[in-house]
Specification:
This is Nucleoside-diphosphate sugar epimerase. InterPro entries: Elm1-like. It holds the Pfam family Mito_fiss_Elm1. The chain is α/β, with parallel strands linked by helices. The chain folds into two domains: 7-142 and 328-340, Rossmann fold (3-Layer(aba) Sandwich), CATH 3.40.50; 149-319, Rossmann fold (3-Layer(aba) Sandwich), CATH 3.40.50. Helix content is 36%, strand content 22%. The chain has helices at residues 19-32, 53-62, 92-105, 149-162, 186-203, 217-226, 246-252, 263-271, 288-299, 327-340; strands at 7-15, 36-47, 74-76, 86-90, 108-112, 125-128, 137-139, 169-174, 182-183, 205-210, 232-236, 255-259, 276-280, 283-284, 304-307. It has a seven-stranded mixed sheet, with helices on both faces. Strands 11-10-8-12-13-15 form a six-stranded parallel sheet, with helices on both faces. Helix 3 (92-105) links the parallel strand 4 (86-90) and strand 5. The two termini are 29 Å apart.
């Protein structure tokens, strides 16, 4: 009989309900499962008012109040009865709760994101994309994502079983929308469709397409009007019929194109060890932090970043390298050493 020798850990995951933050927390759990048997409890906590950040930071930097007082600042889920061994969270509004709950219960904690006025000594591991950061920060080339070659193989088998007639090479197009400094106009969407048609024709490929919550029905209508249906194998039009099929698409694709406005989809594509082209609209003004991440991805040749109107003429795949390791396994080792060695 198989014997599980992994140590058991009770994990509380503090969630603010933001999809990207949820995915990062899932990525941390995915990594921890390489080393531990996890008993996972999700706790949805919403900060009541944004002005509470400053007083809460001042309070936590000075002392750790009784757990019951967290309800003065947050509204949401009931805390589990079993005390945690690890508390996880992603996104600035969860950072206070992650620090508070972990220190109140004597647990370890892992936070994904930037601190907002909190003392870094309140954390055991802070996962960031900035390079060469000191403890307790852990500098990563890409964000934690719940994906591996093993899980992709399973997703690929499912997709091919449902589409046995498809033999042609496939590329995936991931489409976001307004956000992260990207301001898409009608002409941007028309140009994206034209570039996709040219890419399919010139490279003898067909597309798997997924829009997102931020794309919107108007942009989707423009894309559908401009795209050549012959080049499309499958498309998720999120405003009409959302499907969470990203990992299947990544599993069967030779390459991925992704809007620069979606950090989460970029990170999942790189974690999947697929060549990635990142595109942006004519009006794109990301903040310094976001811009620096894009520059590091490009300088490390993990992605090529180009304007939409250069997609079809760009030969960015040639210079790209794929990750040579499983990101989740590497993160698992780093977290085990940091938290429990």
């Amino acid at each position: 009989m198989f014997k599980n020798d992994k140590a058991k850990k009770i994990v509380w995951v503090v969630s603010d309900g933001v999809p990207g933050h949820f995915t990062q927390s899932k990525g941390v759990l995915f990594a921890l499962e390489h080393e531990f048997e996890l008993d996972i409890h999700w706790i949805e906590l919403k900060l009541k008012k944004s002005f509470l950040r400053r007083p809460m930071a001042w309070l936590l930097n000075s002392t750790i109040p009784a757990v019951e007082k967290i309800n003065y600042f947050y509204q949401g889920g009931v805390l589990p009865q079993q005390a945690p061994d690890i508390v996880i969270g992603a996104g600035g509004n969860t950072s206070y709760a992650v620090a508070w709950l972990a220190r109140a219960y004597g647990a370890k904690n892992i936070f994904c994101g930037s601190l907002r006025h909190l003392n870094e000594t309140l954390f055991d591991a802070i996962l960031v994309l900035e390079p060469d950061m000191p403890k307790p920060f852990i500098s990563l080339p890409i964000s934690a994502m719940p994906i591996s070659q093993k899980t992709l193989a399973v997703h690929g088998e499912v997709w091919h079983a449902e589409h046995p007639e498809i033999q042609q090479r496939l590329w995936t197009m991931l489409i976001g929308g307004e956000g992260a400094g990207a301001d898409y106009k009608a002409e941007d969407w028309k140009q994206l469709a034209r570039e996709m048609n040219s890419l399919a024709k010139n490279n003898n490929i067909r597309w798997l397409i997924s829009t997102s919550r931020r794309t919107g029905a108007e942009a989707e209508a423009i894309l559908k009007a401009e795209l050549n249906d012959h080049y499309i194998v499958d498309a998720v039009w999120w405003s009409e019929h959302p499907r969470k099929i990203l990992h299947q698409f990544l599993a069967v694709s030779c390459a991925v194109f992704c809007g620069a406005d979606s950090m989460s989809m970029m990170m999942e594509s790189i974690s999947a060890q697929r060549p990635l082209i990142v595109y942006y609209p004519e009006k794109f003004q990301p903040d310094a932090k976001f811009s620096n991440v894009l520059k590091r991805l490009e300088s490390s040749t993990l992605a090529t970043v180009v304007p939409i109107n250069e997609l079809a003429i760009n030969d960015g795949f040639q210079a790209l390298r794929l990750l040579e390791y499983e990101p989740s396994e590497k993160l698992a080792q780093l977290l085990k050493e940091r938290l429990f060695s």
